[in-house]
## 1
Amino acid sequence: MVVGRIRVNGALRETPVAATIRMLQSADAPAYVALRQAMLAAHPVAFLASPDADLASDLERMQRTLGASEENVIFGAFDPELVGTVGIFRESHAKTAHRATIWGMYVVPAARRLGLGRALVDAALDHGQRHLAGVSQVHLGVSAAAPGARGLYERCGFRAWGVEPGSLRHAGRLYDETHMVLHLPVR
Ligand SMILES: CC(C)(COP(=O)(O)OP(=O)(O)OC[C@H]1O[C@@H](n2cnc3c(N)ncnc32)[C@H](O)[C@@H]1OP(=O)(O)O)[C@@H](O)C(=O)NCCC(=O)NCCS
């Protein structure tokens, strides 16, 4: 049942929850770092980074970088506080500048299955198309231990192209990582 609207980059989409999706700015750094620490602690095999060794948990770094460049951005879902995030950046080498990567996908447990994850991915893809000229591929990796995330990415149009066996080791167990790609129309 539709009871709200999500605003994704200015456009309204009807969903079961009312929320706003927007690009994070420097002032959002404290809320982002707190959520980042929570996601890494709660889902150790869904993310490669560890809570005690994570660049995106460095408050000063995030205050400096959030909103500073179109090439490397993070979107947040607000309801009204920060309840979800996703990042997208363009590869830095000239020969891989046609590739962008999605990372740091997270929605708090209480707000899941309401369309926020999809709205965040849509915002990241929209950013890639509008602001990352020449980007024609969006890549991501998803752990075999995160089937919900894989379902979300497939729903958004990503297709698996390979599996890296035992890519991540945590608490003595190995986890495969599936690599996925979505091709964007070239501008
Ligand atoms: C993965 C995650 C971001 C999904 O967020 P969400 O807001 O619940 O996603 P949405 O409500 O937009 O779901 C969109 C679609 O994705 C798929 N999906 C989402 N979660 C799913 C799940 N647990 N199982 C199966 N499919 C799922 C469904 O097709 C869903 O559409 P539907 O609800 O109409 O069936 C969230 O579950 C999460 O933060 N998980 C823990 C962290 C994580 O795994 N991050 C990914 C790292 S690669």
## 2
Amino acid sequence: MELPKSGIPKDELFETLRARKVQDANWRAGRTWSLIYPAGEDVDDVLVEANRLYVFENALNPFKFPSLRQMEDEVVAMTASLLHGPAVAGGAITSGGTESILMAVKVARERARVERGITKPELLAPHSAHPAFAKAAHYLGLKHVQIPLRNDFRADVDAARGLITDQTALVVGSAPGYPHGVIDPIEELAGIAEERGVPFHTDACVGGFMLPFLEKLGYKIPLFDFRIPGVSSISADVHKYGYATKGASIITHRSAETMHKHQLFLYEEWPGGLYGSFAMAGARPAAPIAAAWSVMNYLGWDGYLRLSKQAMETTLRLWEGIEAIAGLKIWSNPDATLLAFGSNSLDIMAIGDVMDQRGWHLDRQKNPDALHMMVTPNHEKVIDEFLSDLRFAAENHGESEGKDARYS
Ligand SMILES: Cc1ncc(COP(=O)(O)O)c(C=O)c1O
């Protein structure tokens, strides 16, 4: 395909875009179970306006756009406070969970080299940890060592103890992990890391903007944050359950000094002057920062408590409804709003195919085979319809079905 010779008129252009978009997943109708976290039309309006106001700015140079610097500082400070960071905690906004994790691993690698003389760094992460850790190890030259899981899908602490070596640069736990929605035994994992003088990272990309509110609502949430002395850094994605539009996560460090020493990249050996940045990207879109700041301030504690309650109650109703269908089972005992369900007697992948035909987008998992759901407040309105289609799928997945006209 080549660039059009003459530009396409605006109306025609957007007509094409709208027509193409029709084939995309209908997340507004609650039909997707990952990727997007809708929080209501009022929140959508706030996000659209924040994006519109900052669509052209560039967050590379905070001196040119002090409003962006102020928003970033405030987002980091609010997040560190949610995670019980000490007064000296620091952090930065990145483009997403993966970039926050890359930064946590990079800081740990530098610390390992400078503080402990480690030359062959190892990253010790649970088998269920997000692939971003494998990616970070691959990009940054660490050996990726996996901690096996216990039967309850949480990292096996005894195994982890045996896998720490003199070269371990970072130990990781998830709060919660993506595949089964369970929180790893962070206190024990961080404890054994601390005993060996190794930093520990909590991946709260999913839980950072959910668990603090569930805890406040009275749900039993094990400690996962800076209240645990061994936790050195935490990633928390405001573009997941923080309900911001995509492109915003926060990497927080127990000590801002550690971040300045090991995360900041400064360079002036070129003609263009001093260049500095805290993460992978050079030029950075401003809109995700504005969206993150706006949604956090718009919702506040009250808004997040309301949405977390709605998401958790929806999860519990789905959990109960799924297990009421003969043959289906939630594999783990999830701590938050993620569910993975499968079966010992039915073909769960064939059930997933029938659900696809009925317009539901469920991700597939293996070991054990499962269909996966990240539940948002937006799913409350589809609980009955989803469970009725799932019951149908569980009873009829042997037969092939045409695409359901209701959702085509
Ligand atoms: C537990 C966990 N960590 C990290 C990530 C990576 O986040 P992102 O997709 O924003 O890079 C995800 C994404 O789903 C996740 O579930």
## 3
Amino acid sequence: MKGFLQSLPVVGKVFVDIQPEEVWAFWRFMQDHYRTTVVNKRDALEMQLVAQALDALGIQSRERFLRNFTTTLGRRIYTPFEVGSPRGGWDLWSQVVICVHEHQHVVQHDREGLSFEVSYLADRAARARWEAEAYRSNLELHFWRYGTTPSARRIAEVLGDYGCRPEDVDVAAKSLALSAVSIRKGAVINEATHVALGWLDEHVPRLRAKGVA
Ligand SMILES: [Zn+2]
């Protein structure tokens, strides 16, 4: 019993957690599949300009935008972390989740063409709908790993940080709650999640919640 209690936390942690090289390989796979590039947000002049503009418009502080948010423009994904190194609120699993979320935005871009970027930037209600769809990937991955879905309301509230109004957040929360019902029945709706789960099932099946097919 003593040996069991002593060894379990160490063995469990090393065995269960995703490893840096697996996160890196996963990003590599998603990038190859969707032909995207990853850019460090702080090094990108265009992101410095966006950060300044958002700050000036009172939408979001420069620091918060650069530190807390991953941003996708077309096929370029700007990350506030180095893929595979956990840092500042970005643990390894959250790097996997955000990878799928951002690639769902790439799917939207491919599906809708320029109207996606235009409406995303110009129309708060549309932005809430695009994000509700991308955050569905967060729910799908959470279910795959833990067998539960997190609060749709809490996820939707993040949209306040995207300049969305309370009524937009309400719509997003309802749409995410509906998605969660299907996800708990085993549905995988987002294309980027389908692609991602193919890789995760093959390479890190140990992470999948028991009972999730
Ligand atoms: Zn997003």
## 4
Amino acid sequence: MKKPKKTLKSLNIDKSWTLFLDRDGIVNKLIVGGYVCKWKEFKFIPAFLKYIGRLSGKFGHIIIVTNQRCIAKRLVSKKGLALIHKKMVSAIKKRGGRVDRLYYCPHEIEDGCSCRKPKIGMLLKAKKAFKNIKFAKSVVIGDFESDMEFARKAGMTGVLISPKTAGIGGTKADYVYEGLEAFWKAIK
Ligand SMILES: [Mg+2]
Ligand SMILES: [Zn+2]
């Protein structure tokens, strides 16, 4: 018989924990087959804005880790992306939330870099910047299996936000929820 899985609640998440957030599909709406190249194309997911304040109060660190190969494709400049992120962070602050650091991979898949998720280069950078980050006390929230692979590689807890796969299985995620609201209810 399979051991019943621990509930998220039993992890007792507190300020000693870190939350790694994927961006597209979690913070803002994913543009299928495209990229957010301008601020006006950046559309917050309402549940994210609703819960980021509460999540910021719960976790010690809030860090965004995102693959942005739109830079390698020259669809947006580094300066342009920085502007989008500046506006994003300021909107998050207005809702009582915070982002302690944001890392992005600017490379193309073929570049073979060490930072494109599921590789863990961005995690290692975060760990260098914040010495008290513990991967065993970190949650990764993402909408792709590659985010869950990323979580698993470093021994972090992977939470897949996926309205479609919730309850179906066949995922590397430790937990699957339909949205951030259900995740918040599971940890609070
Ligand atoms: Mg995503
Ligand atoms: Zn990279």
